[in-house]
Specification:
Number of helices: 9
Low-confidence stretches: none
Radius of gyration: 18 Å
Distance between the termini: 13 Å
Strand content: 15-25%
CATH class of the largest domain: Alpha Beta
Structural class: alpha/beta
CATH architecture of the largest domain: 3-Layer(aba) Sandwich
CATH superfamily of the largest domain: Thiolase/Chalcone synthase
CATH topology of the largest domain: Peroxisomal Thiolase, Chain A, domain 1
Length: 309
């Protein structure tokens, strides 16, 4: 059963939403909406660090990797964005070379937007399950550099942060075992993922229903119900969306971990793993606890993963 052997994160320094008014071209109403209604305050940004440097900073905190490099068979880059560096720069290859992961296949997964992190864990588990070596590991790297103005914020939805995470995944570990996973894409026929006015209206219309359906489907895959869930570790899109989601899911709002929304911004597909680490540090995950990681991304991609601590 796919397991998270270890999780680490790197959160660069932050800048306030108010200080992003000019760089993002926000007006007073938008600043108030992001801060007072959506609960955003500080946004992780690392303007002086490259994507490779930030990924290596996250891996550098992954103590469980030390001495186990030869066991890593796959390095999987989960990308919320298709492009985060100018051609021909490859941050992923830079990371592989620095870490000396000679035995690893290296590739990226994308096109699920901010739900790609959970997809990468599922892909890692599938590959490891077919490996002849029961001790084989996969290294999953999640998070994105806001490389273009387009990637720095989603109008009237959230502001993007540059936090990064690193995960060691095994095929069968003793804790943080994946019990269920479900993903769904409600895409447009023309393949457009940009939130033009029509797309934004449709995204808002379907968001809560589809997210609820995906969570319940992942729980059904695990042969559990929402009553069995001790904690939800969500994507940090904004506070108001999760206030509504708690009612749609039928779960008390205090079981949804929202502390990092004000501290980091929405760090693409790294959010659930950043929240996992924070929840562990706060003692919110007792042994045997059932928790759900969720994500949603541009292009109307949704995912949920059920795990047992």
């Amino acid at each position: 059963m796919t397991s998270l052997e270890a999780v680490s994160s790197y959160l660069p320094p932050t800048i306030s939403v108010a200080d992003l008014r000019e760089p993002l071209g926000l007006d007073d109403q938008q600043v108030r909406r992001f801060t007072r209604l959506y609960g955003l305050d500080q946004i992780c940004q690392a303007p002086d660090q490259s994507e490779a440097e930030m990924l290596l900073a996250a891996v550098g905190k992954l103590d469980a990797l030390a001495g186990q490099e030869d066991r890593v068979r796959h390095v999987i880059r989960a990308k919320g964005l298709r492009t985060t560096a100018p051609y021909p720069v490859s941050p992923l290859q830079q990371v592989r070379e620095v870490l000396g992961l000679r035995n690893a296949n290296v590739f990226s997964v994308a096109d699920h937007g901010c739900a790609t992190g959970l997809l990468a864990v599922d892909v890692a588990g599938t590959l490891l399950a077919g490996d002849d070596d029961p001790d084989a590991l996969a290294l999953v790297l999640a998070g994105d550099k806001t490389f273009t103005p387009f990637s720095q914020w989603v109008a009237d939805v959230s502001i993007m942060g540059e936090g990064m995470t690193a995960l060691l995944v095994s095929a069968d570990g003793p804790r943080d075992r994946v019990l269920g996973y479900h993903a769904r894409i409600v895409g447009r026929e023309d393949g457009v993922i940009d939130l033009d006015p029509e797309g934004a209206r449709e995204a808002k219309r379907i968001y809560q229903d589809v997210m609820s359906d995906v969570v319940h489907s992942a729980l059904a895959d695990a042969e559990l119900t929402i009553a069995d869930v001790d904690l939800i570790l969500p994507h940090n899109v904004n506070r108001v969306s999760w206030t509504v989601a708690a009612k749609e899911l039928g779960i008390p709002a205090e079981r949804i971990f929202l502390d990092n929304i004000a501290r980091t911004g929405h760090c693409f597909c790294a959010d659930p793993f950043i929240n996992y680490q924070s929840a562990r540090e706060l003692g919110l995950l007792r042994p045997g606890a059932t928790y759900v990681m969720t994500s949603a991304g541009l292009g109307q991609s949704f995912a949920a993963m059920v795990l047992q601590h």
